[in-house]
Amino acid sequence: MAKGDLPVLIGVGQSLSQWDGKAGPDDAPSPLSLMTDASKAAFADTGVPGIAGAIDTIAVVRIFEDSVRGAPHPHGHNTNLPGTLARETGTKPVRLIYETVGGQSAQALVNEFARRIHDGEVDAVLISGSEANRASKGARKHGVEINWADSSDAPYEDRGSGPMMLSREEIKHGLVAPAYFYGLFENAIAAREGRGRAAHRKAMAELFQPFTAVAAKNKYSQFPQEHSVEFLSTPSRENYEYADPFLKWFIAQDAVNQGAAAILVSSSKADELGVPQDKRIYLHGGGDAGDDLISLRPVLDRSWAMDIAISRALAQAGKSSAEIKHFDLYSCFPCAVFSAAAALGLKWETDKRPLTLTGGLPFFGGPGNNYSLHGIAEMAAALRKNKGDFGLVLANGGWMTKESAGVYSTTPPKTFTAAEPAAKAKTQVEVAIVSGDATLETFTVTHGKDGPERGIIFARFADGRRVIANNADAATLAVLREDASPVGRKVSVTAKDETATFVFS
């Protein structure tokens, strides 16, 4: 292992299955089978027959069932995904890693192992991950028995689920689903832009319509269908309301069977293996950042962590956003793309550069923590076709909580600079669950089968403290559901024990 080598991305692979249980158990995928297929595709993509024997490290992106504390394993538990992946791919790595929770994982692992390769710790790493939620849901719906139970005796580093990304106060007020958190961001952005519900839904639809066109042409898309702005922005049986202002197709779709993999090696190892020059992709810059709990963040209409991760990656690459030709921006909800565009100084309404290479999480598919590994795979393909261009991948975890960015090109950098340790937010808002008069800062309304269920708000007292409150009263919900944004209106908050309710003053 040579210290000071450039890290090189030499192979990428993806896998897809549309199996949903309707036709019985034959060919049912599992998380292991999907990442195995993707990994073997990545081996083949390198053009090097003996690449599997060179892998000294495997890092696996954490699957959904292992990401949520206490989550069931309805089809049996694979207790050592890195070890079983090594077995299935015929590799003999000396280190195995099971990454922590978060959609930032794929790019964060690239940033980490680029540094470790440059430092001479690692020569060749396989990064892989998958989700088989479509198979799981289909098997349970149709009463089909599938078995994912497996294990390996190989020792591995389990990085765990990481710190909680929800506070007690948030949970007690009903903030328990990603769409609810992102609804708070989305309505803050709408208020900043002076948009009511209908206008913002149209803006979200105009942002995402080109994503659907990309997804429709991507052979690895789980939902390859182009949609119109009218369909995306209009509530319907196929596009129902979930949490204001979101309709179904504004939200990442996790009912997928998708896997992806990437192989990163040292430049000397690439030379030793005889990797063709036209296969090589170089990381020019990386950036990582982590934000606070959402209720502690001073700003809700954009992402501080995105600002830092993107600016660090661009600065290391010595590039401006105007010099980036290709993007894959994490797109779990429109506000994530709006925030990334703001961080890039990019006018999404008029800029001709596509913001996704996959088609995005609602349309290509949202394979849990592993989505951005697909983005990296598509970036490699795009850059190989457009030699000398630069591309940026932005990966997002939590509720714009953990961000990782990378700038790539087929052109090798003169020198490599490792990404800095993840930046951490230093400024917080004080949360006070107390009674008093406040100004509504942002909101969402959760929906059930029978319609709107509960309004959840963030509001600020005159002294700057933030309060979380909710209300299920029909009259209050009606005000929150008016087309005009209620942000900026006065509310009266009543606190009891650890929760607060509100009414409009």
- Percentage of β-strand residues: 15-25%
If you compute it from the alpha carbons, what radius of gyration comes out, rounded to the nearest whole angstrom? 23 Å
The biggest beta sheet is recorded as: 11 strands, mixed
General shape: globular
CATH class of the largest domain: Alpha Beta
What is CATH's topology name of the largest domain?
Answer: Peroxisomal Thiolase, Chain A, domain 1
Structural class: alpha/beta
Give the CATH architecture of the largest domain.
3-Layer(aba) Sandwich
CATH superfamily of the largest domain: Thiolase/Chalcone synthase
Count of alpha and pi helical runs: 14
- Distance between the ends: 68 Å
**Subunit organisation of the chains:** single chain
**Tally of discrete structural domains:** 2
